[in-house]
Amino acid sequence: xxxxxxxxxxxxxxxxxxxxxxxQRVTQGDQGAFARLYDLLSPRVFGLILRVLVDRxxxxxxxxxxxxxxxQSAGKxxxxxxxxxxxxxxxxxxxxxxxxxxxxxxxxxxxxxxxxDMDVPHDRVAEHVELKIEGRRVxxxxxxxxxxxxxxxxxxxxxxxxxxxxxxxxxxxxGTIKTRMRDGLTRLRTEMGVTT
Length: 196
What we know:
Blueprint: E1 2-3, E2 6-7, H1 18-27, H2 31-53, H3 56-73, H4 84-117, H5 122-143, H6 147-157, H7 163-170, H8 174-192
Antiparallel strand pairs: 1-2
Helix pairs in contact: 1-2, 2-3, 2-4, 3-4, 6-8, 7-8
């Protein structure tokens, strides 16, 4: 049987964690063990990172970061808590996800800076924010309505259906739909604190 690229006789006992053994040697500063570890796992680690990041050059950078971390923190590997291969792949996955988050945060900062630099009148920005806040309030208030009222109002205002179309869609009489919408709007106004 071949495990981690090493031909091992099948003795019926649990397989030896060769990667874990290499990690133990790396802890002692064994550069040869580290080179063997890199040769053994870098293709698999790179494949995992590339699946997360998609970008090849970023994946190559993260691969180097992963193996630098393995060299520096091999002593943190606990053989009684799992296989060496899993430990290294977990580091790789975490690093790749961190890179994705970092890239997203950078993109978000750039977008915000771009909006600041644009000549957008303050009124439009404030209006946009107010509409978003009001939209959240409406969604929360809608959630408090009985299902039938919420369904009718959602179909009308978000779906753009007429009362007749809603009646046909839900299989209820037109008068029932009108009542549901009237009662739902009254309750919605109350929930939102709107007085008329």
